[in-house]
What does this fold into?
Amino acid sequence: MFDPQWLPTIMIFLPLLGSLLLFLAPNRWRDELAGFVAVLTLGLGLMIWYTGGSGLLGLNWIPALGITYSVELSGVSLALALVTAFMSFIAVLYAARRIPNPGTMLALILAMETGLLGIFAARDLILFYVFFEDALLPSLLMLAIYGKAHRMRALVKFAAYTLFGSLLMLVSIIGVRYLGGSPTFALVDLKQNLVTGPAQTWLYLGFLTAMAVKLPLWPLHAWLPDFHEQNHDSGVPDVMGTLYKVGGYGLFTFAIPLFPDASLELRPILMGLAAFTALYSAWVAFGQKDWKRLLAYAGLSHMGFVALGVFSLNETAVIGAMYLLAFQNLYTGALFLSVGMVQERIGSLDTRVGGLMTGAGALGGMTMALWFASIAVPGMAGFIGEFSVLLGAYQVSPWVAFAAGLTTIAAAAYALTAFQTTFWQARPLGGIAVRDLVHTEWLILGLPLVIAIFFGVYSAPALNLMQPAVKSVLAALGGS
Amino acid sequence: MLPLLYLLPLLPLIGFALLMVFPRLFPGKSGGWLATGLIGAAFVVAVLRYLGQGDTPAQETLWTWLPNMALNANLSVGFYLDQLSALMALIITGIGFLIHLYSISYMGHDARFTRFFAFLNFFVAMMLILVLADSYPLMFVGWEGVGTASYLLIGFWFSGRGSESSDKDLRAAGEQEGVNNSNAARKAFIMNRIGDLGFMLGMFLLYKLYGTLSIPELATRVEGVNVATAGVELACLFLLVGAIGKSGQLPLTTWLPDAMAGPTPVSALIHAATMVTAGVYLITRSHFLYELAPNASLWVAWVGGLTALYGALAALNQHDIKKILAFSTVSQLGYMFLAVGVGAYSAGVFHLLSHAFFKALLFLAAGAVIHALHNEQDVRRMGGMRKFMPFTHIVSAVGVLAISGIPIWSGFFSKDAILAAAFETQPLLYLIGLIVALLTAFYMGRWYFLVWRGQYRGAEATGVAHPHEADTITKIPLGILAAGATLIGFLNIPTFLGGGHAFDSYLGRAIPQEAHEILPSTEWSLTIFAVLAGVVGLGWAYLQHRAKKLDNGPLGQFSSSALYLDNVYDGLVAAPSRGIAGALDTVDRGTDGLIGSIASNAAAPGGLFTLWQSGFVRAYAVSMLLGTAAIIGYWALKMVGSGA
Amino acid sequence: MMIAFILLGALTLVGGVITIAARNAVHAALGLVGTLISVAGLFATLNASFLAATQVIVYAGAIMVLFLFVIMLLNANQPISGRDPIPFVRELAGLGGVVLAGAFTILAVSYKDPRPVAEATLALGGGSASVIGETLLTRFLLPFEAVSILLLVAIVGAVALVQRPVPQPDDVPDSEAELLTPPVGSAISRGGSQPVLQHQSLQHRNDEGEVRA
Amino acid sequence: MVPTSYYIALSGILFALGMIGVLTRRTAIMVFLSVELMLNAANIALVAFARSWGDLTGQTAVFIVMTLAAAEVAIGLAIIVAIFRKRETTNVDDLAAMKG
Amino acid sequence: MLQAPDVALLPLLPILLVLAGALLSTLLGFWVSRRTLTVINIVTVILSGAGMIFLWNQGLSSFAGGLQADNAAILLGLTILVGTLMTLLVSLDTAWRARVSFPEFDAMLMYAVTGCLLIVFSGDLIVMLIGLEIMSLSGYVLATLQDSRRAEESGLKYFLLGAAGSAILIYGIAFVYGATGSLNYAAIAAKVGSVSNLTPENTGILVGGSLLLLAGFAFKIALVPFHQWTPDVYSGAPTTVSLFLSTVVKVAAFAGMLRVFGGALADAPGWAGVLQILTAATLIIGNTAALLQLNFKRMMAYSAVAHTGFLAMCLLGTQALGGAALGYYLLVYTLMTAAALAVVAALQRTETGFEINDMRGLYYRHPGYAIALSVCLASLAGLPPFAGFFGKYLAFQAAFQNGYVWLSVLAAVTSVAALVYYLRPAMLMFMPDRTPAKEYTRGERFPTTLTIGLGVAGVTVLGILPNVWYGWVANPAIWQLLAGR
It folds into this structure.
């Protein structure tokens, strides 16, 4: 009989296979093929969910080095994988509609999906690292092929920041195994052989650098605005880029179990940094005149919350952080796409064009609803995340939670200001008449919104996935 | 079998969903009727639940929701019905129904008629969630939900009503209106968010103190768990910040007058009768905490008193027919805060109830006038409207009498109770309350005389020579509300007037009653002072009217600029934060540019490097030789050093 | 013995100094010859008689003649005047040399013979041709053979460099082949001063004088 | 018997001299001559060590090194001649087109 | 009495086969066309490889330990042969354009390989030295062979500095001999193994000698500050030659270092400390300098320097791990560098290669080569799933495990610079471009494509399934016997 343990593996590599097939497929079938693969991947994910998460599949990959192929999709990782599969599908949907001759873009989306799913499924540090870097390549190519005039700068910055962090992480990974004396790099083995003492702190810092770049966390965030600003106007690469912000997940799955003492020790500083990131970037977002940059900073601000939750090591906060991480992908991604739609209609990403909603009510309405999700209006998924993060963080450090809480005000300020100057107010004389949503665009914005609302109201399915996983991870800390 | 509580928010939510997603299914005014009908149905549910209510509160849990709350069980979505929430549900659905009805006529010509009702339904649903919530987080859902609805409705005319016009001037005015409306909506949302942060912090602290956020559980746990008073005080202050934000109290008050940018029914429903009273509701709901926190309660009372004074002063010289009412609302809300601050929860809620009636009435009447005058809102261009709109005039007069605290009308009873409670605990606040009562009577008198009496002054400016009386659909809510504003006071006739405190004793089953220890003689004198204040105020207004000086009320610019509070905020908060945002953006790009220019330009190290990699083979040999010499020399030195 | 060492050592160094300091290349080469012969003497004092002979015959004789020949051929005996393009090269060289010499001296002083020198000397058998030959053909057989490859490389390489063979055409399509043929007479450009910069503006022309479309 | 150290010191100084020559001489041939000095220094050291150990390996190695030197000279002079043909210079500083 | 020399030709077989190719090229060149000779050489190289595989696990040695055909030698020898094969294949297409298409070119190439194999199979310092000299002299000739000013300049620079480097190396050999009384790796290792065997006072001479050896080798593998010839030679020589020099010759030099420092002098004090400083300097200078280059070929030259730094980290590891890491990394390095330079050789218009900016839009003109080149660059940058990542990983691990944590961190940081300079051309290739093509349009020929395919396939397969090669090199026993028995 078929072993369900293999499902994650199939789910991971199916998009890559699809991506390679796209090069062979005739031009006119590419959209359908890509969509089919994306749906199939999502279906597989749902199947894993339906069967209650997969078990751990552990194979020896490079026995001589103690590197294993360990994958598992359950708990938090399954939730994130599902969101990834879903948003990849949405991205495929929009890319097929928006980008002329989209074959390459679709292939890159699928290739990146493989990397992202791999990141979430990996239960071996080296495997994690490999997928972590694998996702980088398609992302770079999207920027290179479809980016804007100053993309080289953005590209170099993005790659340099990412690699700077991840190479330090690589050193830490090596250290984790050798200083701890684990036989393999598999998480289960590493957990049995923890590094102790000051070495743990140093290794944690190495790990942290990588994750802080990918979170991103101030001051390692500078790549993010440029990355989004220079990416293709459609916002499709931005969706994938948003999905790639996996720092919070990495910290949660690997850093906390492997560096329990260090994460406790550094908790105050890191929480402060995370709160600062949230507030700082929200404030910077307030000053942005370009939608992509604004969304970049908004996303950064969310990531500050995610980081705050993870760093606080409080159960509620960590669950909230994971919840936020998973669902912010939905609305942030959809917002990028809505910005792409705006750009398609008026050829501008400026936040001060004014009056779009007069012509495009549905587009404006959906965008507004997504913004409400983004600024954590209750009843949307973002609220559960942000509220839990703040609630949990407050139990640990009230002042930091207060500082982070200020972000909610700033978020309202930047979101509503930009929304108002773009969609509300009067359309200036001579402005291009704006077409409303058509065809699949309804789905592209509607589906994420519906899911964001559903999980904001009825969170049990997602919480049932995440809560036990978080509890077991935090149990390693000795019940703090 | 009583209908389940979740029907209350669900019915309007269904309306919202239908009207949002399938607006095409509801041509003409059918959407409005659907929405109104659903609210009516909700009102029926509320009445049924009210009638079927026992002494023990009902709690109905739907499903789990927030992670890890309340002793590691997930926090649930659940509704809680006690006397307080039943009353609130009645107010919301009842007055909501009337205002929906009114809106069918008022918004009849608007292009986005159906959308308006969707938003209204959404608001009512959120408000019901707010009052029925069994936990603070769920209440927060409603709390922010009504904020969102308020945002949507204030910004309903986001592009201005004339911005599509071909006429240049009209278009310019429309564009300006669009910007103003949008700004007002945003301001309301952001200021509410400030309050919301306070509310959230309050929740966090409560959770830290008691480990739960479920209201009934908290209420019981407060008695059992011993925590430092300072903690409770702080939590109550946090909650107060939340209440301040929502109820437009000082210092977060400036959004409320601006919120009048929304359509008039919105002002009546949200910014007078229901949403803004949520702060009062929150504090009343949290009475078990405030009882443990005397200092925080005192803060509440003072905030209320000062806001009442502020609102009254600012209302003195407004020229917008709705802004006068808006500042009046601020002021009246201050009264309610004062009441709950001094522990007179029942009096506060009672004033909430009566205020809901008369203020909704006044707003709707004002709306009728605005409608009749084709969107003219400046009271200086009105006057003599009683001739054109007799029915509306009568109901307006009822409203003015009610708010001025003239006996038999509801305002008299509710205000009197508050002033009595204030006198008992904080004489200074009583004095303020009394002054505010006088001012209230004056500015409402001014409003009345300017709009309804004297000569019609606006024929030229508005282009409406003969304003028409409101239609029937408009008159029905006005009539019902006027009746309510007149009669509702009799629900709670105080003992010294021979009443039985019916309202107090009903509410007393849910919230504690202040003990009345005032002598009847004192009560009498207090009542006389209060009535006197109302009469003097109205008389003062009449005298001014006779002297034709009402156009410009007292205090001049100071009052019409709302005590310059907006300017202060703009200077202290808004402008600096915009500046800081710009500066931070520059810094963010700058640090980045710095790193970038080092990396990309690399002129200095690059030049150095070219100098080194000079292309001369002997230069390369120099590196080699010096390298070797350094290595060997290092070793030799080490050997000498180690004494070999 | 010591006197011989001092004498020969001094001669070696003097020769070395002449080699590196003489302005005329021929003088320098002669200084090197002096050094080489002195080194041969040193070999002799170290019981390496065969090597001493080889040093004189092969090194000082054959190799140095080759050197002188080339110096004369290339007319390289005149010193190069003008500013040295490398700043401080003499100072740096002096510094490096002094450090190296000092360091080596320190190392040398630290050296202790593993066994008594007199006894060890006997084991060398005088370093005669026969003992060296025996070592070469037994323990050093592989190096001995491998060195022949080295010499072969030297011969083939030197010939190939001095008389460059003609490149054999590829089976390139004709049109390309035409373009690729090096133009006649452009192989040598005189002067030798920075031809690259002069031609940089002409993209189709590089410093190898190739002309490409 | 002269101590081995003396020979080693002598060879070290000779080696350093060779190095200095490599740096200061500006003609390719002279640079190469200086390299010969360095090779000779190595030879002295080898022979001296061979005596010290009483082992013929060192002396035989010198023999090999001499051959190496000869081969090197052949190639080196060929390169120098080849360059001279094209540029008519033996100044190594003239060959500095590639840099940076 | 005359003892019979220990002559066993079987272990010499691979070397002899290559030498036969070289001799055939030298002699048959008068009658046979160069392309035929190249094909013959390819055959001899493959035969030599087969010979090595035949010798696998036999652990043969001959000439009294002067020649070691142990597994380490075979693994490194195979790596060298792979590089040679790729060079030969590329030269089939580009030698004419580089104007080096004559039999002597092939002959010198094969001589150089013979020298390389001698180093790899060497059992004592003299054999190693001779191999090194054969390799170097052939290398000097190869670099100069093209009739152009650039090639001659690079040849002279290479030669003059190389001669000085060799002199330093020989001086080092003399000192090591002085300290241990032997030139044989095993004997030296035995002497060094326990310092009691060594005349205690002579540790100074031993360390001095090993440091001189280190300096000499540092020149051959291009460690800072002995690296400066590298960019000039690699960018001046024909690209095919650069390909050869930067892969085969470097592999051989590393093999020599592994033999000497990982085997004979493994236990000697002093050198590791210096090597780590040199490695650190190499990492910094190499990567920074590559960042500043505008010409792709020259950038690849600096990248070779930078990679020396990463490779040298392996030498700092313990014998078992470091040797295995080096064994893996060298093959991967050969594959990716050779394939990348093969693309340059195929598409360049002149032997200067092309400017990085000229690569814009290459993907749309030569999709296959562009993808291949970007795969190689990604691998060079150390991005998974390509083998370069595991190379880097192993290097980090080797250094880390032996306590050089700071070096690993430094290497990680400098890798970022590496990424940047590899990324720029890789991404430019995918950026659409409207300017006319700057590269040679007919460069795509079968042998080159085969080479590139070999490189890309190798890099990918070894990246996804590193065990294919690492499984062979991982056995610690291989590397603990580097000095021979």
Summary: Residues 174-213 of chain C have pLDDT under 50 and may be disordered. Chain C touches chain B at residues 85-86, 89, 92-93, 95-97, 99-100, 102-104, 106-107, 110 (CB under 8 Å).
